[in-house]
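Project outcomes to date are best conveyed with an example. Our students and postdoctoral researchers have been running inverse folding experiments weekly, and each run begins with a structure described purely in tokens. The record below, which covers 307 residues, was selected by the lab manager from last quarter's runs and is presented without edits.
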């Protein structure tokens, strides 16, 4: 293949990459930042692609750009093929290049500490410097989209079109309490009423884990007011082990305590619910060999531990 043909292919790929980024971000400015290009360069790529296909792709608005029908059609045709190709290339480079450097990972504090951290050893031994940051789902998404973090771990699948995610773990959710509290609950004539008499510990006022468990087991309650709210679920576990209150926890946070007799599972009349965890990233981030390598490593090791 001649140099001109190689150049033409490279330019076509660059223009398609730029198009996808502008399409996802709905912004020339955000796309330029994500691609590490200047805004004029991004505009030139889009103009070149429009000239090549003979159709307008974006309409400029007061804030950002709006895709045309032609852009929607092109995006559907491309799909995730470009992302997959670039991720494969990045993974190949990572096998032959030095992957050392800093990797920013954001996620729920308890899951990072109890599940993710032990699986970071292969990356650390390869020379990757890992920086863990903590936050809830909204902050995780924001830090990934803004480029402040490379990978995220969330208990919620992402619905933002700028992000991608894959399930890495499914945990049973168990309602637990210390032995003395559990005995009072299970010996009561009506469990639903007994739960109202004991202090509730929760992750947030929305009570997602608790409400789902209660609903599945036919015990939907009027709005419950927690005695304590803590976004590090280990703080709830600590109080439970002191004999205070009850809550719902993913199994990885309470299985050892149940096995040692420090906590008792309140048997679900119908069945337990599940909490799924996801690895989240932006397609742009996978162009870095270090991030592509880390993503594949974490998917492999975290899934290997599942079940």
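After processing, the design step wrote out the following sequence:
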């Amino acid at each position: 293949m001649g140099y001109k043909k190689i150049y033409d292919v490279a330019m076509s790929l660059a223009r398609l990459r730029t198009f996808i980024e502008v399409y996802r971000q709905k912004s020339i400015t955000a796309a330029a930042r994500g691609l590490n290009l200047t805004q004029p360069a991004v505009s030139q790529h889009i103009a070149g692609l429009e000239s090549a296909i003979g159709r307008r792709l974006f309409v400029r608005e007061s804030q950002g750009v709006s895709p045309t029908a032609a852009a929607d059609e092109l995006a559907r045709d491309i799909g995730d093929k470009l992302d997959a190709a670039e991720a494969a290339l990045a993974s190949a480079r990572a096998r032959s290049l030095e992957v050392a450097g800093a990797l920013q990972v954001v996620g729920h504090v308890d899951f990072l500490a109890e599940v993710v951290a032990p699986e970071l050893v292969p990356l650390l031994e390869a020379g990757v410097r890992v920086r863990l940051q903590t936050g809830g789902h909204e902050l995780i998404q924001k830090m990934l989209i803004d480029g402040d973090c490379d990978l995220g771990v969330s208990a919620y699948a992402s619905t933002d079109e700028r992000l991608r995610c894959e399930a890495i773990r499914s945990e049973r959710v168990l309602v637990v309490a210390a032995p003395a509290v559990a005995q009072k609950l299970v010996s009561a004539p009506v469990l639903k009423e007994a739960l109202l008499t004991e202090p509730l510990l929760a992750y947030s006022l929305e009570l997602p884990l608790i409400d789902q468990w209660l609903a599945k087991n036919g015990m939907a309650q009027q709005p419950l007011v927690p005695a304590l709210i803590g976004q590090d679920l280990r703080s709830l576990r600590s109080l439970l082990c002191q004999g205070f209150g009850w809550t719902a926890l993913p199994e990885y946070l309470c299985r050892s305590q149940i096995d040692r007799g420090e906590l008792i599972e309140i048997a679900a009349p119908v069945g337990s619910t599940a909490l799924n965890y996801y690895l989240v990233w932006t397609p742009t981030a996978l162009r870095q060999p270090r991030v592509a390598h880390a993503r594949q490593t974490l998917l492999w090791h975290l899934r290997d531990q599942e079940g």
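The two ends are 50 Å apart (CA to CA). The CA atoms of residues 132 and 156 lie 19 Å apart. The training component of this project remains on track.
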